Amino acid sequence: MEEKRQSRNWKRSITIALAVIVAIGVAYVIGAFLVGPGSVKAGEGVISTAVLEMPSGILPAMDTNGNAVTLLVKIAETSEARKAGLSNVGAKALDTTVLLYAYPKVQTARVTYAMTGIRAPLELAVIDESGSVVAIKKASITTSSISVTEKHQWILAAKEGLLAKMGITQGSVVTPGDIRRIS
Which of 103, 108, 106, 143 lies closest to 123, judged by CA? Predict the structure, then answer.
């Protein structure tokens, strides 16, 4: 009888130990799920989920001297994607990230672009329906929004100085209608 009792106690101890291990594992997974995204978001090289989910494309352009330029862009073509923009993208990731805000038709009224959550100064190239860059707008990390009053169908957004390094300045010609989607 004593042997059965010891056997039951041993089985009970093992069951309790396994239950505790499983509970700790579940708590760890839940904690990682809840806390993990916050710590990842803080990283300088992180690209937001919204930007990752946007389609990518190769955009042909010409600088003001007529030289061919090719840009790899993420395309914000839905209202949700345009609203998310480059917010929560790490400063290091902005070194190479170019976002194309694309509209199906020309925007003739003032359009306001939210700039909250940006991690580095940005510049926006305002592009009209013919593909000409008609203005360059700048946003500091404290800017909450930028209003674009120029008629435009597209906006290129990137870390300040990146577009100029690629040859995209006022007077450049960008042809979003010729964009080649790669994802």
Answer: 143
Q: Give pLDDT tens digits for 120-138.
A: 999 999 999 999 999 999 9
CA distance 129 to 146: 20
Q: Which CATH superfamily is domain 49-181 in?
A: Protein of unknown function DUF192 (2.60.120.1140)
pLDDT at 21 over 90: no
Q: What angle do CA 75, 79, 81 make, to 5 degrees?
A: 40
Per DSSP, the residues of the chain read -HHHHHHHHHHHHHHHHHHHHHHHHHHHHHHHHHHHHHHHHT-TT---HHHHHS-EEEEEEE-TTS-EEEEEEEEE-SHHHHHHTTTT--TTGGGT-EEEEEEEEEE-S-EEEE-TT-SS-EEEEEE-TTSBEEEEEEE-TT--EEEE-S-EEEEEEEETTHHHHTT--TT-EE-GGG-EE--
> How far lies 51's CA from each of 120, 128, 166, in Å?
16, 23, 21
Q: Which amino acid is at 47?
A: I
**Total residues found in the chain within this entry:** 183
In angstroms, the CA 15 to CA 1 distance is: 21
Residue pair 71/156 in contact (Cβ under 8 Å)? The answer is: yes
Pairing of strands 68-76, 98-107: parallel
